[in-house]
Specification:
Helix content is 33%, strand content 22%. The protein is an alpha+beta fold. Strands 1-13-14-15-16-19-20 form a seven-stranded antiparallel β-sheet. It is globular and about 70 Å long.
């Protein structure tokens, strides 16, 4: 069905990012990203959209809602359309298209695979970027509820309470060795039989439901429809099943099960995907990061985050599109939300510095990298997730990110270099200036704070400081000035401080297990 939402894109708030640094190589990389991203803007029927780029001229559910929302900082029309194009092409039974293309000038929606589900959170974030359009939010609620209903009606074919993947492209793991024998796509609502080991009991698809239900709870609160508690409970049911059925405490990781409900003993990065979807508890996330993500024998190679652990028998170092081994730019793009969900901010810094350093050296935007040399797998340039990852890590480490009703001010020190980063949004401008070991945040040219580098400052949209977060990889002595108030304290990686009763108080601390020492 086509659900045209009749949103006037000409009345969306205008956005713009202006960034300047005297770090010439980083500025060159940043400016190139801005130019390359614009080349991925295309017109799909009546819609201006941001496509995936490189060899991929279409929009996929696993990449383009997320990529579009990241691009809202610069182009609200394309960002919103990257959500609407999927919402408006949802089927009557609730299923969303995995891919949408344009053939002979007409949209074609493909429903033979899921292709991930990096959609609920980005689509929700657009509600805030739009300055809270309740009509859009209600439509999003209906879309998410419909897709969740579809998942539980069809994708638990054996009735054991765990959702299934039926083909390779359901999870977007092209050519992956762990999916040998499975069909690439599978149309219809009856599971395949006799093809490899599908249907799989899937951590990814369980994550799809968990993410959708978490967002439905948020929307319910915003709409006041009385369903917030219901959706929170339903999301927790999914998390409980992931833990009880797919998590292996002795291995500190989740593993899918095959069509015989036996564990598939392959250690995959998909655990990080489930963290993106919010499907882990805090202790599960902490354990996977400590025991696996930071382990140089598994995922923490020269270029970290291989798709399958490099010491796993099914790992393959194949340079073309293949999810059997080489680190993917898409994984780096998703890792930001995955790690933020569980308070692992310093690990974002680790990954961001590595990723920016590699791209700064090569000035090439690939899909994959060799995990042992960090060389880009030379294919066609202009891969959108690579471009957007550079821009997003910039904003998180060195600039300004707006998230719902909060502003993240990234105060990481970049050597001796100075920088100025401005996010314009409607009538407001949010500017970060950093020099000589300190950074300041300004809203409409009024200074909100000044602090020693090494932390993220979180404020509301009016500039009220809400949190101070340790994003550096070592303990840092901080001086924070807010108008006439000043505070001096030491913050460690992944610590979160708040200001209460004119004092700085530690609110939370998450483990930082780097370097790997287990």
């Amino acid at each position: 069905m086509n659900r045209c939402l009749n949103i006037n894109v000409t009345k969306l708030p205008e956005t713009e990012v202006i960034y300047a640094t005297n770090n010439r190589s980083l500025q060159t990389l940043y400016d190139l990203c801005e130019d390359m991203a614009k080349k991925n803007i295309q017109t799909f029927s009546d819609k201006k959209v941001l496509v995936e780029g490189s060899y991929y001229p279409n929009v996929w559910l696993e990449t383009q809602p997320m990529g579009g929302e990241m691009y809202a900082k610069r182009d609200m029309e394309a960002a919103l359309n990257n959500q609407l194009i999927f919402m408006e092409n949802q089927r009557e039974d609730g299923r969303l298209p995995g891919m949408i293309s344009v053939i002979e000038g007409k949209l074609q929606a493909d429903f033979a695979w899921f292709q991930g589900y990096c959609f609920p959170v980005p689509a929700l974030n657009m509600y805030y970027w739009m300055k809270k359009d309740k009509n859009y939010l209600q439509k999003l609620y209906d879309v998410l509820e419909g897709f969740d209903s579809y998942l539980w009606k069809y994708r638990d074919s054996d009735g054991d309470g765990c959702l299934e993947t039926w083909c390779v492209w359901d999870t977007g793991e092209d050519h992956c060795t762990r999916l040998a024998g499975a069909p690439d796509s599978w149309a219809g609502e009856t599971p395949p039989s006799g093809l490899g080991q599908v249907p799989y009991e899937s951590m990814d698809v369980m994550g799809y439901s968990c993410s959708g239900r978490d967002v439905l709870a948020v929307i319910s609160k915003e709409l006041g429809n009385g369903q917030e508690a219901y959706w929170k409970e339903k999301a927790d049911e999914v998390r409980h099943k992931i833990r009880s059925y797919l998590w292996r405490p002795d291995k500190h990781a989740c593993y899918d099960r095959d069509c015989n409900n036996e564990f598939m003993d392959v250690l995959t990065h998909n655990n990080l995907r489930v963290m993106y979807y919010g499907g882990f508890t805090q202790d599960m996330a902490d354990e996977f990061i400590a025991f696996h993500m930071l382990n140089p024998e598994e995922f923490w190679t020269t270029m970290p985050l291989s798709s399958i652990a490099v010491n796993d028998p099914l790992f393959r170092n194949i340079a073309s599109n293949n999810w059997s081994g080489q680190p993917e730019s898409l994984t780096y793009q998703r890792a930001i939300q995955a790690l933020e969900n569980y308070g692992h901010y310093a690990e974002i810094t680790l990954l961001g510095k590595i990723y920016l350093g590699v791209l700064e050296k090569h000035l090439f935007f690939p899909q994959q990298f060799d995990p042992f040399t960090a060389e880009p797998s030379k294919a066609k340039d202009g891969y959108g997730p690579a471009i957007l990852s550079v821009l997003e890590y910039h904003s998180r480490l060195y600039g300004v990110s707006i998230s719902k009703d909060e502003v993240y001010w990234g105060g990481l020190q970049d050597g001796e270099f100075e920088r100025r980063y401005t996010q314009r949004w409607a009538q407001d401008s949010f500017t970060l200036e950093s020099k000589e070991g300190c950074f300041s945040g300004y809203i409409n040219d009024k200074q909100m704070f000044n602090a020693t580098t090494g932390v993220r400052i979180v404020t509301d949209l009016q500039g009220q400081v809400k949190e101070i977060i340790g994003i550096d990889t070592e303990a840092t002595a901080i001086h924070l000035q807010i108008e006439e108030q000043s505070f001096d304290f030491t913050i460690k990686p992944n610590e979160v401080y708040v200001i209460e009763n004119n004092s700085v108080i530690k609110k939370k601390q998450v483990a930082f297990d780097y370097p790997f020492a287990r």
